[in-house]
Amino acid sequence: MPIPDYQTLMLPLLKLAGDGNVHTKRDAVNELAAQFGVSEDERKELLPSGNQEVFDNRVGWARTYLKKAMLITYVQRGQFQITERGQSVLAKNPLRIDVAYLRQFPEFLEFHKPSPTTAVQEQVQELETAKETPEELVASGYLKLRQQVEHELLSRVKACPPEFFERLVVKLLTSIGYGGTLADAGKAIGKSGDGGIDGVIKEDKLGLDQIYIQAKRWDDASVGRPEIQKFVGALHGKRARRGIFITTSTFTKDAKEYADGLETKVVLIDGIQVAELMFEYGVGVSTESTYVVKRIDSDFFEDEDGSDVIAKAISK
Fold first, then answer.
1. Is pLDDT above 70 for 2?
2. Who wins on pLDDT, 17 or 167?
């Protein structure tokens, strides 16, 4: 069963509070997980940002929206209780509580009121029907943009000559932290040409060890086990302990299994990983916009819960 979306959680959460007792968010998360049959693995599933569990995040947003509609109130940090309005809503036995339902309450309408711009109005309408929390929508949108950029990066790298790819390998590895200075790395890469080795680069800035490189700019053909074996043989000839085989294409399953079973450490980096590393370390890309997502500081407010996101900022 998929993890329920945050709007689906609103009514069960209000019913949970319907006994009039004070509840903690942690207790609510545990009880709702049991109610919806959310497994332990599903509960460990993280947001794309990696900073919070998906289920916890959705319960938090459901609670925030119920509070903004004054159906529940925060008693103290991490604790909440149903209000008279919340009891009145339950008495009407609604089939579902969601954003559209909550907009009947003036306090929630003020909180959720869009700005005059058409674009923001459309965004608010999307939030009313979305299964994802606003935080999830931001994260998934970021991932889509990142994937598009990475796809374009790889396409452009494949279209460039092999000499460009060698220079790219130098820049990428030094950006990650290998090779000392860019000038030192540039002198080492592309000069060996020794039995399957394209170059050598320092493992650290002090040059305590060296890593041998094989770089292949291939369009479609996958790198197979024979190519890896040739590279490993060259490493043994140099008594090398580490090597990196980097390509713009892919590796066959046989090649990966062979590399995994070696005593000599050989890292395989395919085209998709090249694009991911370029994006992550700012090689071939520039920052266009930066968005900062902020949360309530629970240490600043004694009666606020740290999971309460400043959601109003999204609607302005």
1. yes
2. 17
Closest CA to 110 of 143, 69, 66, 76: 69
In contact, 233 and 196? CB cutoff 8 Å? yes
Confidence check: pLDDT of 52 > 90 = no
According to DSSP, residue 181 is labeled S
pTM for the model stands at: 0.62
Tell me whether residue 175 is in a domain: yes
Cα separations in angstroms, 314 against 47, 129, 135, 309: 18, 15, 10, 10
pLDDT band at 135 (very low <50, low <70, confident <90, very high): confident
Give the distance from CA 193 to its chain's centroid.
39
Domain count, the chain: 2
Residue 118 has pLDDT above 60, yes or no: no
Phi (first) and psi of residue 142, to 5 degrees = -60, -45
Q: What are phi and psi of 266, to 5 degrees?
A: -125, 120
Q: Closest Cα to residue 199, out of 149, 175, 163?
A: 163
The reply to whether 81 falls in a domain is: yes
**Look-up of token digits 């092999």:** 162
CA pair distance 194, 216, nearest whole angstrom: 15
Residue 15 shares a structural domain with residue 127 = yes
Domain of 97, in residue numbers:
10-132+298-315
- On whether both 103 and 197 belong to a single domain, the answer is no
76 with 173, same domain: the answer is: no
Helices (H), the chain: 10-17, 25-36, 40-43, 54-68, 84-91, 99-102, 106-111, 118-129, 134-159, 162-176, 182-188, 225-237, 253-260, 271-280
Instruction: Identify the pLDDT of residue 242.
Output: 86
Q: How far apart are CA 217 and CA 173, in angstroms?
A: 16
CA 30, CA 45: separation in Å to the nearest integer? 15
- Has residue 5 been placed in a domain? no
**Could you tell me which of 154, 255, 237, 158 has the C-alpha nearest to residue 200?**
237
Q: Using the structure block, give the residue that is written with the tokens 């890593």.
A: 211
Closest CA to 211 of 163, 174, 247, 253: 174
